[in-house]
Amino acid sequence: MNEIARLQHLMQQTYSGNCFHGDSVAQIFNSIDVPTAIWKPEGAAHSIWQIVLHMTAWQNVIRQRLTSSVLVTLDDAHNYPAPPEATIENLSKSFDEFRDSVAALIHAIGQTPEEQLDRPVPVRGYTFDVLLHGAIHHNLYHAGQISLLSAMHRRSKQ
């Protein structure tokens, strides 16, 4: 397996595969309902729903950085956007948009020449290889946050 295929595999595994560390992002999402998604404990910066929107935004930024010579960034309003109206349909749509952003990134990774992995990302001090591994780490980091917030919400209701 070459490095491009390995990166695609890792991205897919962390989203919906069997992960050695625990549940995949998709498995975690399956346990989130609307009240849990909008709940924010006192002192917390973001709700689960905001984190999901943040993850989606960064998946799209990373894909654009991979495929464009222009450095794409996010302003504060797009980094942690406000969720739409709290309905099951809107929450499902947010989860679907994240899934679609993962699929689009996996596709873009597959279109990337392996030699690009060692090149620097424009205007940044790291390579595309670091960027793509960072995308995987970013998803796992936030999956952990979502799991913790979900558990805290369950305990707050007892």
Explain what you see.
By secondary structure, the chain is mainly alpha-helical. Helix content is 64%, strand content 0%. The chain contains seven helices and no strands. It has helices at 3-16, 25-30, 34-38, 48-67, 76-79, 88-110, 128-156. The longest helix is centred in the last third of the chain and has 29 residues, at 128-156. The protein is globular and about 55 Å long. The model has no long low-confidence stretch (mean pLDDT 94).
The protein's oligomeric status is single chain
Determine the structural class based on helices, strands and strand pairing.
mainly alpha
The level of helicity is 55-70%
Along the chain, the helix and strand elements come as HHHHHHH
CA radius of gyration is 16 Å
Short synopsis of the structure:
The chain has 158 residues and is an all-alpha fold.
Walk me through the topology:
Blueprint (H helix, E strand, L loop, with lengths): L2 H14 L8 H6 L3 H5 L9 H20 L8 H4 L8 H23 L17 H29 L2
